[in-house]
Design goal:
422 residues, alpha/beta, Rossmann fold, Hect, E3 ligase catalytic domain fold, 3 domains, 3-stranded mixed beta sheet, 13 strands, binds zinc ion
Length: 422
């Protein structure tokens, strides 16, 4: 039986209220371990509301894992995960305080709306009218749904089994009403549906991000026929043969593929965290070696300080000489202590950063497709660099360590698209 440890954490009072308490999490994680045939050898919990510095037992767990190298799994429950914290959206109903189910009365309305809009040639208003004509009634007292409400429904990731809470996307425990492919088609359709309001916030999303792959000039954007956004080289640095105009949708599509490549599933994520820890052994060995050497240097200094004090007591040296040496060595001792602390910290943040990065990787794609222009750019800049446009193709580099994810996962995920230069 494989050995595992459990780590549970509550990060705010609110989450505790919502039923994410430590005992509740532990129960969940223990069940999971049992299902996966894992033997739990230790449990670690942190309550960040109780202790201001928080995360103390996280550090303890890391120490424990260093000592027990046969523990290959850490079971962690994202504390915010699983339950939708507010009122369910149209098409769902709350069966109990924790369970949200598909509502057989209202869900056909939502499903039909998605299918109509996914066709790509209906405006929101046409979908509203179409639903009404086909006999899909929003509410008895208000048979036609409002436009902005419909738009928010069609963009709501709750329907594909996720939910947004405090700006982050979480995997819900509820059943998806809409499959991923249909949801994606609807998001594509929003780009075609050129509503001026939508356009405005979205305007020239990728301008300023891209550089011409041939001449290094910046890439600019302009609107054609009042609705289509095209990107092209400014030819600002003189001679350049790039004269293609590329649609924004096309660039968006290519960026989406780029983000998709670093996607990790929850299962992959746990696996990588474990791998991260074992691949970190060299790093840890280095830190340990340094810390040990710093400790022995400290020890030597302490001995010297003690010895010279005795020399002073024995009148073997002057008071001045003693004081001078005492101060000098105490200062050195202080410096060594600072170095020890820095090493401990570096080692800890290595693992925490790793987990942070995996969280980004597992959520990036969903964030990307659900966000507006500016937010997309922010996300792209976290993951990629060196954005070039040549012909109709963008090129980029994955920032470290996303490059490893992109490479490592390319062989396990088939995206139906291969780069021609490979
Ligand atoms: Zn150019």
């Amino acid at each position: 039986m494989n050995k595992a440890v459990i780590y549970a954490r509550v990060s705010s009072r609110e989450q505790e209220r919502e039923g994410y308490s430590i005992p509740a999490q532990l129960k969940l994680l223990q069940d999971y371990a049992e299902k996966k045939n894992l033997k739990i050898i230790k449990e670690f919990t942190d309550n960040e509301t109780a202790k201001k510095e928080g995360r103390t037992n996280f550090t303890e767990m890391v120490k424990f894992l260093k000592k027990n190298k046969d523990v290959k799994t850490i079971i962690v429950e994202k504390t915010e995960q699983g339950e939708y914290p507010s009122k369910p959206t149209l098409g769902y109903k709350r069966e109990s305080s924790k369970i949200i189910k598909i509502d057989t009365e209202t869900s056909p309305f939502v499903l039909r709306a998605f299918n109509l809009y996914a066709e790509g040639h209906y405006s929101l208003q046409k979908v509203i009218d179409g639903l009404y004509k086909e006999g899909f009634v929003y509410k008895a007292e208000k048979p036609k749904i409002g436009k902005s409400h419909l738009e928010s429904i069609l963009k709501n990731i709750f329907y594909i089994g996720n939910f947004m809470f405090k700006g982050r996307i979480f995997k819900g425990t509820h059943e998806a009403l809409i499959d991923r492919e249909l949801f994606d088609r609807v998001q594509e359709a929003f780009k075609k549906d050129n509503k001026p309001l939508y356009r405005k916030e979205h305007e020239f999303a990728f301008a300023g991000l891209l550089t011409c792959g041939e001449c290094g000039s910046s890439i600019t954007a302009e609107i054609k026929k009042g609705k289509y956004i095209y990107y092209h080289c400014t030819h600002g640095k003189g001679e350049c043969s790039q004269d293609k105009y590329i649609r924004e949708e096309e660039l968006d599509k290519q960026f989406k593929e780029a983000i998709k490549k670093i996607h990790v599933t929850e299962e992959h994520k746990q696996w990588i965290i474990t791998a991260l820890k074992s691949s970190n052994e060299d790093e840890q060995a280095y830190h340990l070696e340094r810390v040990e050497s710093l400790h022995s240097q400290s020890q030597r200094l302490r001995e010297r300080i003690n010895k010279i004090y005795i020399d002073k007591l024995d009148n073997l040296i002057t008071e001045e000489f003693w004081l001078e040496k005492h101060n000098q060595w105490t200062l050195e001792l202080d410096k060594l202590q600072t170095l020890v602390t820095a090493h401990d910290k570096a080692n800890k943040s290595y693992i925490e950063n790793g987990i942070q990065i995996l969280n980004i990787a597992s959520e990036a794609y969903e964030l990307y497709i659900s966000q507006s222009g500016n937010e997309k750019i922010k996300l792209l800049k976290i993951i990629l660099s060196n954005f070039l446009l040549t012909g109709e193709n963008i090129s980029y580099e994955y920032k470290k360590p996303f490059d490893i994810l992109a490479e490592g996962l390319a062989c396990t995920t088939t995206l139906g698209r291969k780069d021609s230069n490979l």
